[in-house]
Amino acid sequence: MITISNVRAFYKGGDGLELVNLTMMPGEFAYLIGPSGAGKSSVLKLIYMDIVPQSGYVKVGGFSSLTIKKKQIPLLRRKLGIIFQDFKLLTDRTVFENVAFTLQVTNVNRNEIKRKVLRVLAEVGLSHKRNKIPTELSGGEQQRAAIARALVNDPIILLADELTGNLDPESEEEIIKLLEKINSKGTGILMATHDDKLVRGRNRKIIRIEKGRTL
Predict the structure, then answer these.
(1) What single DSSP character describes residue 152?
(2) Distance CA 9, CA 19 (A)
(3) pLDDT in tens, 3-44
(4) Cα–Cα nearest to 43, from 67, 24, 68, 70
(5) Residue 208, phi then psi, degrees to nearest 5
(6) What is the pTM (predicted TM-score) of this model?
(7) Using CB atoms within 10 A of its CB, is residue 94 exposed (0-12), middle (13-18) or buried (19+)?
(8) Residue 164 three-state SS
(9) Best CA proximity match to 96, nearest among 71, 125, 118, 124
(10) Backbone angles phi, psi at 170, to 5 degrees
(11) How far apart are CA 57 and CA 5, in angstroms?
């Protein structure tokens, strides 16, 4: 499903990825772990092709960094669900509207939008909060809304970037259990985190990165 092979990718300032190799099979759950600044977010950006390698290649769901055209990148991203630590919810819209917006921009019809949004809100346990705006939710609930938004397009994989970093331990554990439930239904998950304690004892694939290199 995902292959990153011998990738080097550098930003204008000089920092970046020295040498990254990564593979994920369909339906796999893996943790990408490393200290702050190690390159975790950059690896995720490679996958949704926000950055491109200077050498090596990235293959995701039938798309390759070697051949993809700029106009195809939105098609790739529709196959992915991306979740950020700071939620990135629209504060002037309800939970339902935040999740629906992802489908509206791809011209899905209204009845289908309603069906899909209600389904994913039930899956993340937020059906009763669908008419609330983000500021009326707890941090854990906001992250659940962000997960619902990422799920609504039925992605092949969820990319989670430090998504529990702003949560208390109880909410953190609830979010991990939710991701495990989602994964059990067939959606792949790659979660970037700096927290070694978070991944300990979970019996999941672990990919370590330090100073722009996977180990």
Answers:
(1) T
(2) 8
(3) 999 999 998 776 799 999 999 999 999 999 999 999 999 999
(4) 24
(5) -100, 140
(6) 0.93
(7) middle
(8) coil
(9) 118
(10) -65, -45
(11) 6
